[in-house]
Amino acid sequence: MADEKKNDTLELSPEIRFAEEEVQTGGFWNKLKKGLFKTQTELTERIASAVDNKVALDDRTLEYLEEVLISTDLGVDTSLELVERVKKNALRDQVKDPSSLHKMLTDEMADLLWELPRARPLGRGSTLTLVVGINGVGKTTSIAKLARRYQMAGERVLLAAGDTFRAAAIEQLSIWGDRLGIEVVKQAQGSDPAAVVYDAIQAAKARRVTQLLIDTAGRLHTKDHLMAELGKIRRVIDREAGDWQRRTILVLDATTGQNAIAQARTFSQVVPVDGVLLAKLDGTAKGGMAVAVARELRLPVLYLGVGEKAEDLVDFRPREFAAALLG
Predict the structure, then answer these.
(1) Which pLDDT tens digit goes with each residue over 61-100?
(2) DSSP state, 36?
(3) What number does CATH give the domain 127-273?
(4) Is residue 304 within a helix (H) or strand (E), and if so which, with residue range?
(5) pTM for the whole structure
(6) What secondary structure letter does DSSP report for 283?
(7) In what order do the strands lie in the sheet with 127-132?
């Protein structure tokens, strides 16, 4: 019986195994609450102020509630829709206190998030993840967090320093590799990024790696050059890792608010993006960015960076996110 259970576990993808372990240990909820603490605190206080001593939601209160939600960078359209849903479905005795309003907003936000695009699930087998994003958003640290995630799930992980434009990017990824005990394929600054990717794929095949994570340069001010560079990298990947599972993850900095939306739009024009990793969520009171990204860009939010440690990365789960955001 024990052997059967063991075999069942082995059939699960590393993502599912890791997620289940987090749930069992309670680590997911604690990390998510920590990451959204600033946003949740501000929302709780302002929502309480909005309905203080009210027995019904009047127009003035609803307008204030819209302002509160917009201030977290949920996006204007999303905030207006949420308030409209609350107004439409509210019963008089449901909104006499802040806790009732929290519950209603949580339910409506969770329902709204469930309607947004979902990421295609990854199965078993070797996976190549191309990580894109401008410099300074926390891209390299996010790669390290993804690497740690797979490492903890028992995967064989390899990193590729494909951002050869900056020596600091190569060095930073190498430092993370040393900390985690994960090999980093790299070349000298100024080398051809596609050549680094080629070497990394060959090394991954030779070492039977199951998770290859590739860093890339993020120079949006030279969009044409970036497009050509990523195009060349993708051609190498198509040729050398055509039978692998492949995905492209865009890293955005939650602290930049609506600027991140503009960055995401530009990158989506340059390279097909499969999902978003929202970094530095713990450093801002604008946690609603996760909702805005999913809603306005129709891109799945995959992960949330909720701290500085390698383990501070959680899945984006709509209902849990809504509950943590609204308190």
Answers:
(1) 788 888 888 888 888 888 898 888 888 876 555 556 666 7
(2) T
(3) 3.40.50.300
(4) strand 301-305
(5) 0.84
(6) G
(7) 184-185, 157-161, 211-215, 127-132, 245-253, 275-279, 301-305, 313-315
